[in-house]
Design brief:
- The chain is of the alpha/beta class and 316 residues long.
- It has two domains: 139 residues, 3-Layer(aba) Sandwich (Rossmann fold); 140 residues, N-(1-d-carboxylethyl)-l-norvaline Dehydrogenase, domain 2.
- The protein has 15 helices and seven strands.
- It starts with a helix and ends with a helix.
């Protein structure tokens, strides 16, 4: 959904856009109807080419925009390396959120690892950006994390316009981890909603969650202050409080006593916070960061008592 909305935004900015969709039937339907079933009133510009051929979509493209479920990033980047003819000097912008479970690589790290020709030319776009809100023209601020300089300014200028404002930032690691970790804390916010806790309790959770995010970002080589920007605090506020957030909705079901598998099945799209919680808890152990809230939320996604989230905040 986010990829389709970003494609439309870039077409509106004058870019020539090719949109790749993994499922051939979905690509054909999108190309024919120019509609997305989950975005009421949305219409894809006629200039956007839609297909399910990855190599053809990426061939000679100046900018590769990755908007994928985190579980598909490695295979997709690898397929690009093996099959696609990339333009000399091509750059990559990652707009996916997550951490690879085994290696703890961020999505941008995976792009750089699987496509070494792009190393040093990978940025990450992140921030509070519910696709349906962006699609209907809600003003939205984002951060572009990566190497600063002329290329960063060029990318920001391309993405910045209309109702989207983009701020370049030198810390890709912090931007990426902030975007992933906030999904975990948003699950915790939903758990509190399901337990019937109020705004006072949720405020305590958001503050504690932000502190744990900051510690883990710093321990992973990012900047601690990145967490106070749009890709950290901004995204956390939106995802932890909005009815649009599937991570918060999933957590709410857990708090109501719904089993994790059932709660996940009830959400029509990917709940990124489930996999992110597992990766975050493992990364905390690897980096030797004490994060009782992240551990409690991870436990809840595996069936542990949701009451432990309150206990992690100091409530008995």
């Amino acid at each position: 959904m986010w990829g389709v909305v970003l494609a439309q935004h870039l077409a509106g900015r004058g870019a020539r856009v090719r949109l790749w969709e993994y499922v051939p039937e979905v690509a054909a339907a999108l190309g024919r109807t120019r509609r997305h079933q989950l975005i009421p009133g949305f219409s894809l510009d006629a200039s956007i080419q839609v297909n399910s051929d990855l190599a053809a979509s990426a061939a000679e493209a100046d900018i590769l925009l990755f908007v994928l479920p985190s579980s598909a990033m490695t295979a997709t980047a690898r397929a690009l390396r093996e099959k696609a003819r990339l333009a000399p000097g091509a750059v990559a912008v990652n707009a996916s959120k997550g951490v690879e479970p085994r290696t703890f690589a961020t999505m941008g790290d995976i792009v750089a690892r699987e496509l070494p020709v792009l190393r040093g030319r990978v940025w990450t776009l992140s921030g509070p950006s519910f696709a349906r809100e962006v699609a209907r023209g809600v003003p939205t601020g984002l951060m572009l994390g990566g190497p600063m300089g002329a290329q960063s300014r060029r990318l920001a200028e391309l993405l910045h316009g209309g109702t989207i404002a983009v701020t370049p930032w030198p810390d890709r690691v912090g931007v990426e981890l902030g975007g992933s970790l906030k999904n975990v804390i948003a699950v915790g916010a939903g758990i509190l909603d399901g337990l019937g806790a109020g705004a006072n309790t949720k405020a305590a959770l958001l503050v504690r969650g932000l502190a744990e995010m900051s510690q883990l970002i710093r321990a992973s080589g990012g900047r601690a202050d990145t967490v106070y920007g749009l890709a950290g605090l901004g995204d956390l506020i939106a995802t932890g409080t909005s009815g649009e957030s599937r991570n918060r909705a999933y957590g709410e079901k857990l708090g109501q006593g719904v089993a994790p598998a059932r709660a996940q099945a009830d959400i029509p799209t990917v709940v990124e916070g489930v996999e992110a919680a597992a990766s975050a808890a493992a990364l905390c152990r690897k980096r030797k960061v004490e994060a009782p809230l992240i551990e409690a939320i991870y436990g809840a996604t595996r069936g542990a008592p949701t009451r432990r989230v309150l206990e992690a905040l100091g409530f008995r």
